[in-house]
Amino acid sequence: MKLTELTIAAARDGLAAGEFTSVELTAANLSAMENTRDLNAFVCETAEKAQDMAAASDVRRARGADLGAMEGIPIAVKDLFCTEGVRATACSHILDGFTPPYESTVTTNLWDAGAVMLGKTNMDEFAMGSSNMSSYDGPVTNPWRAGDDGAKLVPGGSSGGSAAAVAARMAMGATGTDTGGSIRQPGAFCGVVGMKPTYGRCSRWGVIAFASSLDQAGPLTRTVQDAAIMLGAMAGHDPKDSTSVNESVPDFEAALTGDIKGLRVGVPKEYVVDGMPGEIGELWRRGVDWLKDAGAQIVDISLPHTKYALPAYYIIAPAEASSNLARYDGVRYGLRVEGDSLQDMYANTRSEGFGAEVKRRLMIGAYVLSAGYYDAYYLKAQKVRARIAQDFHDAWETVDVVLTPTAPSAAFAQGEKMDDPIAMYLNDVFTVPASLAGLPAISVPAGLSSDGLPLGLQIIGRPFDEETMFRVAGVMEREAAFTAHPMTGEA
Amino acid sequence: MSKLLKGRTGDWEIVIGLEIHAQSITKAKLFSGASTAFGAEPNTQVSLVDAAMPGMLPVLNEESVRQAVRSGLALNSKINLHSVFARKNYFYPDLPQGYQISQFESPIVGEGELEIDLADGEVVTVGIERLHLEQDAGKSLHDQHPTKTYIDLNRSGITLMEIVSKPDMRSSEEAVEYATKVRSILRYIDTCDGNMQEGSLRCDANVSVRRPGEALGTRCEIKNLNSFRYLRQAIDHEAVRQVEILEDGGKIAQETRLYDTAKGETRSMRSKEEAHDYRYFPDPDLLPIDLSEEFVARMKATLPELPDARKERFVTAYALSPYDASVLVSERDTADYFETVAAGRDSKLAANWVISDLFGRLNKLTIPVSASPVSAEALGELIDLISDQTISGRIAKDVFSEMFESGEGAKAIVEKKGLRQVTDEGAIRGQVQSVIDDNPDKVADYRGGNDKLVGWFMGQVMKASQGKANPGMVNKLLREMLSA
Amino acid sequence: MSLDKDTVRRIAMLARIKVPEADLETMAGELNNILGWIEQLDEVDTDGVEPMTSVSDFRPELRADVVNDGGDAERALANAPENANGFFVVPKVID
């Protein structure tokens, strides 16, 4: 088997057994990156750094030093993470040339666990998008195609580059960030596992902010087990992030017992939207059957405010973003476009520096917070958010996890939905509720559409109970037996 | 004393509310570990958080919370056990985040009140609306380059306590007294050094005028007054300006104004104001502050005796006049100094020496009492010499001057210069006798009924003794011998 | 609630984004479209509901009052588009 086809778990065993070195594993991934540049998944390749880190890992291993959970495993990093001495631009023109003199906590944790950095991945500008089309570095092409002569498809977003890189076997795993679905939806579109932990599980320090009350880092991997391993290395309390929870990180991998007998799985009746292809509903029903067959108890539940999650999200996230992105003013870093006056310089810089979708959200954000509209929009949205969180809270009385589809469609063509923001927003209709409630959720590839494109199912867990969520996801993965491969076409 | 302003068309009442921005005494900033020391090279006290680098997050300094709670307690105000940080959004180059982290709907300290003493003895109660925590901005330097503004972020993120009063003041005197009292209290409890020159304490004044008894008029906010003198001048000028407009039939526009210290007038900053819509919302990077009653009680226990209580004690324990007591307690150092001097001594004498002699000198040279060349112990020694009649009060003044100049002790000066008072009756009697013998005309005059001449004889004898003769004894002997 | 051109101009100014006069109408239409969709929130009964500002129900450790950061002007200025004599530099501010 090619080294790039290995899972993190298998590579870990192979490295431990001395079957290959991290340098070899890393070289294989670097060469895959080179051969697959046309996907535009990476915006920055750090080959030299990768080789150095891999060599250092091999030395540690040879010395018999304490090895980390990700020892020698090459991974990709979303461009939203600040990486010391390596560009971090959130794929925005406004951060042109920005090279942070600091390293985010999550990536620091990964390097401390022995992981090797391959490069920075493409994404929607400032993580605002569901197609990766808003990147200043250009779109990412999904490694999957609908048939041989199908159009180029989007990988989903905003962690589109990360999902594509993992799916196309360029990286064994990748970091993503999820504000309203930005890990899970591209995971589903690219046929990989995408996992967003409980809000507060991973530090946000050094992650370029989009919407602070929602942003969470998480892994994109090819298996549930890999996601458990990688999350274990990313998570942990960080005193530099006031919203990072001071709880010990469980052994997520150990939670994958394969046994879900007696677990109660909630199936919410509201996760249906107009125009949703029938095959999504069918896959969902199959998912229910798999879990039932594995011994879980299926419980029909209601999460009555589900349909209001998306509009509430499109007030809260832009409001926070409009404030978070005020720091991009051409004064201390990034792009500056000169003007006749200071005000001119501000407006020129921000008008040229931000893309259309970002500007649209900044405008909405400024509007919903402005005098006279705050109560009607922002405050209302926060109250609706409380309602949505309460729905889940009530559900946990009767169920242990909730099962839903991840997205209402499979990957769509590049350029589609570009002139209809709301249609684009609807991609996140099933992922946003868990984001607003701060819950852990994972998308597992569960089947193919009639066009041969991957579809995902989502498992939402209780706050800080990623273990149960992983356990169910592991069983789902086993039952779904998703083996389709975007590059070889093998199913 | 009438506080009303006389206009052409009748009397006007001035209504004033103050916002005091007090820099909290902390080593590090409100949300970062950068230093707050004054006067450093530009941008050397700037963390990545203060520079609002991408992905940086604020973490609240526990000392800032303690200082705010202690200040609230000392200002007789309610501590809110639950408070929330909010973002105040606006663009300015010395505001790196593009928002100031402040508190809006839920400040850490709520309502309270302070009593202030006016010079004529009137006591006025001023309500406090709130005290909230917020970040200071950086500094913009407009005079370094003809077409550029230079930005120094050293001050960016330093803890400020904004103390907002109710519109309870009716004259610039009241405003200055209130601000002075707030400053005095904060200095007492070491939460703000009150240094206005360094910008540790700044005032914004909200000023409006109205006919006595009528509803509140439209107010203007005068920004960034960095001395009490400017505070007084700005309020007085602004009140007159508003009255003139109203008496000419005009209307006051609610706006922010700047006091031009050179021209002695306020001018509009309206151009800036129009653009503002601060879009406050709770800061999602910070969780609310929840304090326990127990914590508040612990903070209360850290407070020293406050000026009001100390003043009361000075009046009862030291039998001082309320005025003297209030002068002495205005600064903690001064009150401490006085208490050291007064310990075991005549407290009125001590108060007189501290207030008239010591303060007179120190104020002239603008030296703080903490840097006085005459320590409290040294002044005490001097007073002891007066009390045990080693020297006279007159000589003591000279000794004090000498102490102030040279820093030498009172005893040493007295010994060195031979200033010890003469109390040997025989010696004094001899000096009195020579003065009597040398001035037969004056003696006759006195004996003829001109009693006032005793003062003149007194002067002659003291002069002859180089001031060292015990004045009581001289007086006694003079009367006795002149009548003989 | 519907946005007009003046409102779009005002919020563009608040956000420091230039919207050319000719685009104001289109932008207003786009934003109205989104806001119209958002307004379905009015259907939700939120009487007596406390607004949710955070999902975190714990209270974090606070920072000790210790100076452990800053002290490096070069680091602060390293990415600045313009700097001089240790200062960030911007076009002159006219009050």
Q: What Rg of chain C, in angstroms, do the CA atoms define?
A: 23 Å
Trace the largest sheet of chain C across and list its strands. Answer: 1-2
Taking pLDDT < 50 over at least 5 consecutive residues as the criterion, the unreliable ranges of chain A are none
How would you state the average pLDDT of chain A, rounded? 96
* Structural class estimated from helices and strands of chain C: mainly alpha
What is the CATH architecture assignment of the domain at 3-262 in chain A?
A: Alpha-Beta Complex
Q: Note poorly predicted spans of chain C.
A: none
Strand content of chain A: 5-15%
**Distance between termini of chain A?**
16 Å
* Spatial order of strands in the largest sheet of chain A: 4-6-5-10-11-9-7-8
CATH class division of the domain at 3-262 in chain A: Alpha Beta
Radius of gyration of chain A, in Å, reads: 21 Å
Helix content of chain C: 25-40%
Q: Oligomerization state of this entry?
A: heterotrimer
Helicity level of chain A: 25-40%
The structural class of chain A is: alpha/beta
Describe the biggest sheet of chain C? 2 strands, antiparallel
Could you explain how this protein is built, in words?
The complex is a heterotrimer of chains A (491), B (484) and C (95). With 491 residues, chain A is an alpha/beta fold. Among the domains of chain A are: 3-262, Alpha-Beta Complex (Amidase signature (AS) enzymes); 307-382, no CATH class. Chain A has helices at residues 8-16, 22-35, 47-63, 105-112, 160-167, 184-190, 224-234, 278-293, 309-324, 342-353, 356-369, 375-395, 421-425, 432-437, 466-480; strands at 42-45, 74-78, 116-121, 173-178, 193-196, 216-221, 264-268, 297-301, 401-405, 441-448, 454-461. In chain A, the strands form 2 sheets. Chain A has an 8-stranded mixed beta sheet with strand order 4-6-5-10-11-9-7-8, with helices on both faces. Chain B has 484 residues and is α+β, with helices and mostly antiparallel strands. Chain B folds into 3 domains: 5-299, no CATH class; 304-417, no CATH class; 425-483, Arc Repressor Mutant, subunit A, CATH 1.10.10.410. The longest helix of chain B has 20 residues, at 228-247. The mean pLDDT of chain B is 93. Chain C has 95 residues and is mainly α. Chain C has helices at residues 5-14, 24-38, 73-77; strands spanning 83-84, 87-91. A two-stranded antiparallel ribbon of chain C has the order 1-2. The model of chain C has no long low-confidence stretch (mean pLDDT 93). At the A-C interface, helix 9, helix 10, helix 11 and helix 12 of A face helix 1, helix 2 and strand 2 of C.
